[in-house]
Amino acid sequence: MQLIPEYHWLNGNKYYKLFLQPNLFGTTDVVCCWGRTGTKLGGFKVVPCSTQQEIESVINKAHNRRKTRGYVTIYEKSS
């Protein structure tokens, strides 16, 4: 699986974003951001991943969860 560094989902005025961020320790963090458009409400979490399988697992879990909650994939942005 080729990793895409940025994912965006939308459900009405709610959004969920996920992107990959290399860190100083040579591994990659998956950053998840969510909230409502037009407001300052929302949050984020950082999931540290040391292998590509961990990254793929986090992405797949997020994708499946967004799909079951009615979100639509807006785009998957590659670098």
Runs in which pLDDT lies below 50 for 5 or more consecutive residues are none
Number of E-type strands: 5
Estimate the strand proportion.
over 45%
- What percentage of residues falls in helices of 4 or more residues? 10-25%
Number of helices: 1
Mean pLDDT value: 91
Structural class: alpha+beta
Radius of gyration: 13 Å
Question: What is the first-to-last residue Cα distance?
Answer: 15 Å
The coarse silhouette is: globular
Q: Oligomer, anyone? A: single chain
What's the quick description here?
With 79 residues, this protein is an alpha+beta fold.
Description of the structure:
This protein has a five-stranded antiparallel beta sheet, covered by helices on one side. The protein has one helix spanning 52-68; strands at 6-11, 14-22, 28-36, 42-49, 72-77. It contains one helix and five strands, in the order E-E-E-E-H-E. The chain is 22% helix and 48% strand.
Tag the structure with descriptive keywords.
single chain, 79 residues, 1 helix, 48% strand
Structural topology:
Blueprint: E1 6-11, E2 14-22, E3 28-36, E4 42-49, H1 52-68, E5 72-77
